[in-house]
Amino acid sequence: MQPLSRQFKKNVAKSIADKELQKSLLTAKKCLVHNRLNAIKLVTDFELLREKGKQIKQHTLSHLDYYLEEFEKNFTAQGGQLHWAKDASEARKIIVDICKHHDAKTVVKGKSMVGEEIGINEALEEAGVEPIETDLGEYIVQLANEAPSHIIVPCVHKTRQQIIDLFSKHHKKYGCDKKLTEVSELVAEARKIMRTKFLNADVGITGANFLVAETGSTVVVTNEGNGDLCSTLPKVHIVTAGLEKIVPGLDDVSLLVRLLGRSATGQEITAYTSFFTGPKRDVDLDGPEEMHMVLIDNGRTDLLNSELNEMLRCIRCGACLNHCPVYGSIGGHAYGWVYPGPMGAVLTPAILGLEEAGDLPNACTLNGRCESVCPVKIPLPKLLRSLRVRQFKKNQGSKTSRFALKIWAQFAKHPKAYHWASNTGIYLLSLITARKGSIKFLPLARGWTSSRNFPAPQGKTFQSLWLEQKEKKCE
Amino acid sequence: MNNNNQNSRDEILEKIRCVTEKKEISKLNISEELNQSMKEKAKINYVSDLKLFLSKLKDVGATVSIISNTNELVKEVHQYVAKNQIKTTVTIPENSTLQDIDWNEADVTTQYDAESLIVSVTNASMGIEETGTLVLLSSPSSPTGMNFLPEHHLIVLNSTNIVKSMEDVWKLLRADKRELPRTINLITGPSRTADIEYEIEIGAHGPKKLHVIIINE
After folding, report:
1. Alpha-carbon distance B81 to B89, whole Å?
2. What is the ipTM of this complex?
3. What architecture (CATH level 2) is domain B43-215?
């Protein structure tokens, strides 16, 4: 997918003006935050679980080479074919080659963020292979020719009416011309159409939630059951996975699954948690004859080698999106690429470069909610700050803010000057406000005052109050 | 793997080693230490009281009936079919213990046909109390498609095979020294989606109904 993160500010303006989107975002936020809270209440010590989750992932990353080789050994011993891909284009080529080798006409796909990341659908279409998204949300955004706007709920930005219109436009060719109104009717129609596609597809492609080094297994977590049909019915099963998906053993999966469901949708466990180990056995009645795994780097080893390496613990639950006030106001598309919200604000510049996505780390209030809900305790605000530092060192970012920061730094280094300047500032502001309590227009701060009033300073500066306290004590 | 791919592999691993080799090699079994359950490796926690398991099944939208022996299974399946006004044949897996049952004139087939499967009855290997989950292992007597293609999935579970947590399932499989099957399905309730306006809709691509028949002898 062509990144649009460069025009972040334009995207934001569009999202904020989109009334339908704002309505959808509000419902989404309410539901997801509420569901998670209810689910973690039922666990005796969710904090301990988070700490363990963090340790498992951090330990694996510290010995990533060992566990990857262990996985390779066990996966191939089970008859799986492993392919390593340095970047997105190599991954696309591997997948397209497998499809061509099998003369594939159609591919059914389970929901996969790394699939979006490498742009597999476009590559398949170019090669004359039809990719069919089977997760209902992904299917809807595919029909709309859009990108998913949430990593768990891809069509969170779509209202029911918009989906009804999409179905009536695209489903006529299947002889479905009944006007639908209920969600149940929409789901039933999609099920019926998709079933034929499942049964006739040549290849199934799924992502992976976890790769198990101990057994060489791939773990896929879904609610709809589409991932399982993708990996069972076609003759070839291809798994695409970022190499940070690896965990040491089955017990680690058990623990992380407890965190994943609760953090993502507020479920103790999703309807289906499936472990795939190699292709079908000779005696089995169904299952794929070939199982391929494309292990994708695409910037991950660079991430591992950087101060942002904790980001690789991410298990893609989406909790940071659901709790982010910025995501809640602008939705996923504004971020301009595959990964939105706080995790996206770190991953996008880390993978695509700060030149491409420099605005994202700055679109954060550093309120810390993302870190406090992250199931593997990724210090997202710290990572976003590191990206800002990187940006400053590279002389990137707007000239005005760089200039302002430099001036501020001069004052910050000289407490007396700072004290004098802040007092003068407050005095000047109080002249403008004239006891109204807020300021409607402020030179140099139009970005603030054009949409809301600037609160007038209340009383004295911290430094003045501190001095007064000190003097009082001395008396 | 072609040469090109071999190069990518080596390059990736080399880059990773720049980081991992700097670190002290800590104990690789740290993840085992993290998991309390691993410490009591041999002990498998079976569950004798069905109460929690049943309430979890209910929470996730499965229906349950308890029978006292396999002979009652035929009647139970009959009742389910009648109650849900199902007019099609019930499919049971070939080579399974279900095939040995005398289904007397019931409309039952062992011909697994992916395109026409509406109702299936299959065996679960285990149940997990913690989440109300059923464990199905793929084998010639348990094809994976039968768990996902039908509208109605009836799962038969012996009450002696209910364990406390997912970790107990792994302990059992390790104790058996069995190779893992192609597919292990952990099934918790019928298939569902909340992709449209957060309305939870039961019956997405997998079964619309999940009925668990527990044999409690």
Report:
1. 9
2. 0.93
3. 3-Layer(aba) Sandwich (3.40)
